[in-house]
Each structure stands twice: as structure tokens, then as C-alpha cells.
Design brief:
single chain, alpha+beta, OB fold (Dihydrolipoamide Acetyltransferase, E2P), 2 domains, 5 strands, about 20% strand
Length: about 150
């Protein structure tokens, strides 16, 4: 499972808005063996990450919790969001290039077909992800940590 420590910011029914306590990446940025991806993410935005999760554990505002996502969900999501548009872009470019009437317009047709395929891929990926958004398989879950309790500021 992929997990991160977070603090509960707000509770709304069976959902909670949590803010990640880790900067970015896996949390090993300060160690000598870390890859430093968290430092790179700070370059592009230092805003804390906030997201909604199901609050089956009835965590209260200010509680430090462990938010976990089942194995494979992140990989499947990444493949859906990156690979599907890429495949449709290449396919659209190839099909459109074959439709060109002469050699001088092949590149224009390929660019238009690739752009259409790319946009279609993003649209399909968004549709699939929205349909599976609240699926129990893909839903992040709050697990109280052993240190659970009010956050200290």
C-alpha cells in the first residue's frame, strides 16, 4: 500500500479534507539514499497538498492520520492518464497522415490527427477516472496512526 501522514483539516459527513504532512515524494529527501524528488517538487510549488478521503474511522479535525491507497491504484492511474492519450495521439497522427492527398500536406494532417487523438485520450481518461472516482477499490482510506491525537502547531 502507498501511504502518507496527513492532518485532518475539515470533516463533512463521511468525507474528510486532509493536508499531507510530507513535502513530496516518499519522504526520504533528507537521507543520503533519497533521490531528491521532493526538492524538485518544492521548486514547482510549495503549497501543501490537500485532498478529500472517506472518513470511515470518524477522525476529528486536527487528528494526525495515515492516508493509504491500495497497491496498484497509482500505477493504473498513471498508465491511464499518460499512456492512453499517448497511444491515441500516435494512432491519430498515423491515421490522419494516411488520409493526406499529397506528400506536402502529410505533416499538417499528422499534426491535426495527433492533436485530435491527444485531446480524445485526455477526455476518455478523465471520463474513466470520474466513473471510478468513488470506487471502493481506488478510494484512499484514513487509518489512525499510533500517534493519533490533536496536532501541535
Amino acid at each position: 500500500m502507498t501511504d502518507t501522514r496527513a492532518i485532518v483539516i475539515a470533516v463533512d459527513g463521511h468525507e474528510a479534507l486532509v493536508e499531507s504532512m510530507q513535502g513530496g515524494g516518499c519522504g526520504n529527501c533528507d537521507s543520503a539514499n533519497g533521490c531528491g524528488s521532493g526538492k524538485l517538487s518544492q521548486l514547482f510549488g510549495s503549497e501543501p497538498r490537500r485532498f478529500r478521503v472517506l472518513n470511515d474511522g470518524n477522525a476529528k479535525v486536527g487528528t494526525i492520520v495515515q492516508v493509504t491507497v491500495p497497491e496498484g491504484v497509482l500505477l493504473r492511474s498513471a498508465l491511464l492518464m499518460y499512456l492512453l492519450p499517448l497511444i491515441l495521439m500516435l494512432g491519430g497522427a498515423m491515421v490522419a497522415a494516411q488520409m493526406a492527398s499529397d506528400a506536402s500536406s502529410t505533416d499538417i494532417y499528422a499534426a491535426l490527427g495527433g492533436g485530435f487523438g491527444l485531446l480524445t485520450g485526455f477526455w476518455l481518461a478523465k471520463g474513466v477516472s470520474m466513473r471510478h472516482r468513488w470506487s471502493s477499490v481506488a478510494q484512499p482510506v484514513i487509518l489512525p496512526t499510533s500517534e493519533a491525537g490533536p496536532a501541535r502547531k
